[in-house]
Predict the structure.
Amino acid sequence: MKFRRPPWVKPRAVIGLLVVCAVLAIGPLLHSDVYIHNLLTLTFIGIAAALAWNWLGGYVGQVSFGHAAMFGVGGFVSAQLELKLGFPMLIAWVSGGVIAGLFSLIWGHPTLRLRGPYFSIATIGVGEATRLVGTYWDWFTGGSSGLSLPMHHNLKFTLYWYALGLAAIAMAMSYALRRSSVGLSLLAIKSDVDAASDVGVSATRLQDLVLFLSGAMIGVCGASYGSYFSYIEPGDMFGFDRSISWVLTGVIGGIGTIAGPALGAVIFVLLRQYLIASYPQLYLGLYGILLVLVILFEPLGLTGLAMRVLHRARPDLAVTGVAGED
Amino acid sequence: MAVALRAEGLSKRFGGLKAVDNVILELEEGRILGLIGPNGAGKSTCFSMLAGSTPPTAGRVFLGPEEITGLPAFRAARAGVVRTHQIVRPFANLTIFENAIVAAVQCSGLDRAGARSLAREVLDFVGLGPRRHEYPGGLTLAGRKRLEMARALACAPRVLLLDEVIAGVNPAEAQEMVTLILRIRDERKVSIIMTEHVMAAVMRLCERVVVLDAGKLIAAGEPRQIVQDPKVIEAYLGKKHA
């Protein structure tokens, strides 16, 4: 069977992603800086999660403040499967992700009928309820003392490539969801859900699908985070600030754009690393200021800024829509 | 003549208010049916029930022989009943071309390439072809009404419900819109139900007119008879003019 490229996949994008991944993949073989290795691994997980949040928050426009619920569910299910049932790590990750995705459907199917701020408020409730239940169910999460996962030095080193793979898959999925014809329907739902239904878009089914994919990917991120730190604890996994961080990375990087949230995640992880040690208060304040500036001046965040600069430098390269020229 | 769309005993209650009360509609294949009445008569609610955006409290809707009562809007659209909105609702974040593609991909049953060429063809048909890579924000009201119609046509509908597509545009544009509606009927073989306040357009376009007042059907017949019906004049202007 010969593989045929779907018409919406630009070869340029595939080559670009492969080149970036190849460079990052050979990186650790050339240097032995544990600090950078560690930072990049966390950045990759952050990128995958930020992109997954954006599928729902950016493409469909349903801004979730409760995605840490799926991060935690994915993390703890995966940990328990490894510890109690002896699942191999990758299968545990995927199972954790699927269960996190199903969990998101349980609360999301009814609440996705709400739109805008009403949906967002509902997700705050879901996120906090999950955190509280997670903290009390110590048979599942180990309670406040958490769970410890198997760890050896080699694994921590290898997880770099797993995390890179995860970010690459999330990037490819972001591209596919946005550029394929499904992407147009998602944007139509974001613009006007009733008008979209009137031209045949099944809003309920598509929103459920996107929420499942988003929840499952975040769940896998939670699972990989757990494996990387070899210790997880409900207050951290389900934390509200974790949910907020994805809103921030999405908005600052460029909400609804394909790659913007990845950029947002890189900046978020880097800023946190450099600022949290010396100025823990300043770092949240800085983020707040950045958020206000973006919302006031550039709704598409850093991506919008980059597009503006590009447009000024080369006005002939007009930014066309998804459908492109034909 | 075959019946394209038929509604029997269509009713909608909002609490104690009977917005639409026991209305009967019958649209013949290849015809244009006018649905008129003063503001608040229940015309748009009727459209919502026919197109599936609002489930009826009572009554049944048939598309040809097939019952479509209570189907959700996206299923009714895929089955072939597509509406436009009185207040235009373009997808502002998509280009004009993409607006049409969404509809074509979801409704027409064509593959991607087929859906794209249908989308291009309907945009050329309504006269928006050259502007298809622009965003709807740059269009005039008449332009956006054309887009609304193009998007509905991209669904490859059998029955088109046009909700006040002429009201609010200037006389020259209104004239073009009338021509466009006739072309939709004749060239695309689509049966049409339209609500409209511009009576001149109704008189020119519709073979039959149904009049609603306060949710009830008060008259039905040819446009010329209808405008002389005392009940209709009373509904629009009050008793002393009737």
Notes: The radius of gyration of chain B is 18 Å. Chain B touches chain A at residues 51, 53, 72-74, 77-78, 82-83, 85, 89-95, 97-99, 101-103, 105-107, 112-113, 115-116, 133, 135, 151-152, 154-155 (CB under 8 Å).
